[in-house]
Amino acid sequence: MAAASTPPLHPPNLSTVKSLAESPALTSIPSTYTFTTDTNGTLALDPQNSIPSIDFSLLTSSNPHQRSKIIQELAQACQEWGFFMVVNHGMSESLMKGMIDASRRFFDLTEEEKREFHGNHLLDPIRCGTSFNPKVENVFFWRDFLKVFVHPQFHFPGKPAGFSEVAQEYTQQVKEVGGELLKGISKSLGMEEGYIEKAMNMDSSTQVLVANLYPPCPQPELALGMPAHSDHGFLTLLIQNEVGGLQVEHKGKWFNVNAIPNSFLVNTGDQLEVHYPFALSTTLSSSRKMQHIL
Predict the structure, then answer these.
(1) CA atoms within 13 Å, Cβ hemisphere of 27
(2) Is residue 10 a contact partner of residue 129, using CB atoms and an 8 Å limit?
(3) 170: closest CA among 148, 199, 194, 145?
């Protein structure tokens, strides 16, 4: 008797948002993409209460005073926000832009080419699709995605040409930045700087790259790119293009993320909070960009 096949995560009759957005006949979004209620609540407009910024070069400085000061700032950012911008991290602007450009070229592949990577299981090492969980959603999110497991074993689509090579260099450097941030967080908790990395066996842990595409929308006030959510990993390092839309929640209010050029937005995830709840703030984000989850 043949085994029953696993139903696809991506319904076969559901097109990508990109193909929908590029349809010449599209003047309004379908009702299946329309959110009729405010999902985010109050939007904060106070420019003085902004997402903290961490100077990575000070975190790796040989000057003990500078390093001690930035570790205190890192601890405060984790405790009060759960989000922070990372600047002067050492990754070249050309590599960051190259990663965004290569991701865009992936989404520009034909529907047939991308269908090779749809996947049938949440844990497939390479999976692309649309929305958030279209199998169970009544209203879909205005988002296409690519999700790839890149560590401990590096997986990646073979298309488009050059994408895998750029991604391998990018993900390796992101892992190094994430490792230094975890050292700083360990130190801020009064532990040895390598404690979290060793305790969680980060050398063998799962590292995931997620690329999100939010195509132009004729009625953006009715659509939502991603629901309010927290990230399940240890750290999420996110880069985005110049188009806004990402928001984070802080003390019951939502803040627009105005990204600093050539920076990462770092989100402390659920696993880090579960292990060290006394040190971290619960974090939520929502999006109407490139995520990297450690």
Answers:
(1) 1
(2) yes
(3) 148
